[in-house]
Amino acid sequence: MSIASLQDRLPSYARDVKLNLSAIAEDDSLTPQQKYGLFVACGHATRNADVAAALEGEAASHLSAEALDAARGAGVLMGMNNVYYRFLHLTSNPEYRTMPARLRMQLIGKPGVDKVDFELWCLAVSAINGCGMCMDSHEKVVREGGLPASAVQTAVRFAAIIQSAAVALETAAVVAA
């Protein structure tokens, strides 16, 4: 699958999503690894198999096997971390913030790709999952790693567009039922 095949499946009322998918496919403001890793990590973060498959298909020829696994790992790891840290952020009882997380997250320390790229993927997935603590943490690392605010904004824009493609497919399925 590819972005084009994904666009073909989107309903007419998702025309803006189709156009936005074209825009990110053509965007060259990030390195190829950053861009295609975002496709994979965000695709999996949507929890929509069709979106994930299309974006993996688009990214496959642009990423090494190691980078592909790291991008998948960013989506999976943030699926866990975003739940936990969003809880810490949103709960009013400060006692929970004093307790150790006791979550295994070695991938963050050794992702197998450039740390800034991995952190950028984690940031975008955290935006999809709505974890403010994680967004702040990963944005700080990305910026300290030398990426400009425009790269952060681009990553979050990609996440928003990819998430909207999943919503469009799910809406179409409901309408068709």
Automatic annotation (TrEMBL):
Disulfide pairings: C131-C134
Domain (Carboxymuconolactone decarboxylase-like): residue spans on this chain: 94-175
Keyword Transport carried by entry: no
UniProt keyword annotations, A-Z: Antioxidant, Disulfide bond, Oxidoreductase, Peroxidase, Redox-active center
Signal peptide annotation: none
Catalytic residues of the enzyme: C131 (proton donor), C134 (cysteine sulfenic acid (-soh) intermediate)
Similarity comment text for this entry: Belongs to the AhpD family.
NCBIfam families: ahpD, ahpD_dom
Protein name: Alkyl hydroperoxide reductase AhpD
